[in-house]
Each structure stands twice: as C-alpha cells, then as structure tokens.
Amino acid sequence: MPNPQDLKTPGLTPFSFHSDRPLFRVTSGVSISEALSHASDLLHVAKLLAEDAAMIRGTDRYAWASCYLQDMSKAVIDDVVKVLEAPGSQLA
C-alpha cells in the first residue's frame, strides 16, 4: 500500500474553460497534503468574498472572485480524488 504522504497530484484536471478549452490545469507532482491545504485556503477566501458579496449591493466583483476561487479549489480536490481512487492505490 502506498504511503499517503508519497502521493502526488497527477495534473489531469483542467479548469477555467473558455470556448470549451481549459485555460489552466492543476500542476502534477504536488503532494496531496499540500494540494488539499491550498484548496482549503482557496475555499476560505472564497467564503469570505461570498459573504462580502452578499452584503454589498450593486457590485458583482466579489461574487466573481469567489466563483473563480471555487473553480480552482474544485479542480485541486478533483485531481487529488483521481489519485486516491486510482486502481492499485488501496486508499479508495
């Protein structure tokens, strides 16, 4: 069974699509621990921005920033899930 600390992101998950093509992709080789920690930070900031967007009328800039941060967070988490659910990982 692989050691969870040795697992790395495969870099297979794209995000921020424009004209049906991804502008960005999760980088391969990042430890899943670091990747999940970063996703948690992104989601925290997205939550704060969403709260501000709910309070400030007449602007959508906070909502869009929150949306993009959530998109990045989801891509990182989806990439980590691909590692954890990979055949032979014995962690799924």
Strand order of the largest sheet: 1-2
Number of domains: 1
Q: What portion of residues belong to β-strands?
A: 5-15%
- For the secondary structure, the number of strands is 2
Main β sheet profile: 2 strands, antiparallel
Quote the distance from N terminus to C terminus: 11 Å
Overall spatial form: elongated
Quaternary form: single chain
Low-confidence stretches are none
Describe the protein in words.
With 92 residues, this protein is mainly alpha-helical. It has one domain. The protein is 52% helix and 11% strand. It is built from two helices and two strands. It has helices spanning 32-55, 61-84, and strands at 14-18, 21-25. α1 runs antiparallel to α2.
Question: What are the defining features of this structure?
Answer:
92 residues; mainly alpha; two-stranded antiparallel sheet; 2 helices; 11% strand; elongated; DUF3077; DUF3077 domain-containing protein
In short:
The chain has two helices and two strands; from the N terminus they run ββαα.
